[in-house]
Amino acid sequence: MPELPEMENYRIQLSRHILDLPMSEIVVHREKSINVEPDQFAKELSGRQVIFVERRGKHLLFHLDNGKRLLLHLMLGGLLYLGTKEERPERSTQVEISFGPDLVLYFIGLRLGYLHLHSAKEAEDLLSHLGPELLDRRMNEERFIRLLSKRRGSLKSALVNQDVVAGIGNCYADEIAFAAELLPSVKLQNMSEEDFSRLYKATREVLLEATEAGGYMEMPLTKDDTLTGGSNDLCRVYDREGEVCPRCGDIIVKTELNGRKVFYSPGCQHDR
């Protein structure tokens, strides 16, 4: 499932290509991917322009010039592709939105995900439960420690809880725990201030590195996109079961924690 780095990469790249271009054609292939009737959806978007693309957690918010919002959550398996009609990917698309005369944004794999049209207030209310953004300029080490140190339960469970912090899922939770030299299963109530300080630095390093590398999406956003997917080879433990840990040489283990798969290196990740 796309996480903060993947969606931030999409936000940055889309902002370079689609802003202030009128939507000229809206095609809906799967009605369940949207929240209004297809005819109404097309009518509401036709001629409108995206004036700003915002990311909130794992969501993208397309701010329209009439004050409304398109709220996107790709969920598991969702992808975006931006190109001409001739460059249409050989994939099943659920929604297609044309910008200007010959640029189409293809929404792919929205079987669990969605693209919903809302008022600004509706979108704000729907996302109001999300925790703070960890890369926000208002986030600092002191606030981070205060946010997590008062909680109980495992580290991974807290990191992937969108009500606690926004944007982290299975992959980056494991990578952050590895960078902090902590087991994903470590209990927050057993962590020291030094542990939390190390965790804060690890969180920023992992998320910034992955974002700058373009995230781990399997397909480029455009035909000229050489950035997206660049962090595929940067994962140290996630999906590396049985491989050698790059830090200590131990074998990476896969297990489960509260129904989620977990990858870690037993040789250099500890509960304190």
TrEMBL record:
Signal peptide: none annotated. The keyword S-adenosyl-L-methionine does not apply. Residues 2-114 form the Formamidopyrimidine-DNA glycosylase catalytic domain. Residues 236-270 form the FPG-type domain. Keywords: DNA damage, DNA repair, DNA-binding, Glycosidase, Hydrolase, Lyase, Metal-binding, Multifunctional enzyme, Zinc, Zinc-finger. The lineage of its organism: Bacteria, Bacillati, Bacillota, Bacilli, Bacillales. This is Formamidopyrimidine-DNA glycosylase. The keyword DNA repair applies. Its cofactor is Zn(2+). It holds the Pfam family H2TH. It comes from Paenibacillus puldeungensis.
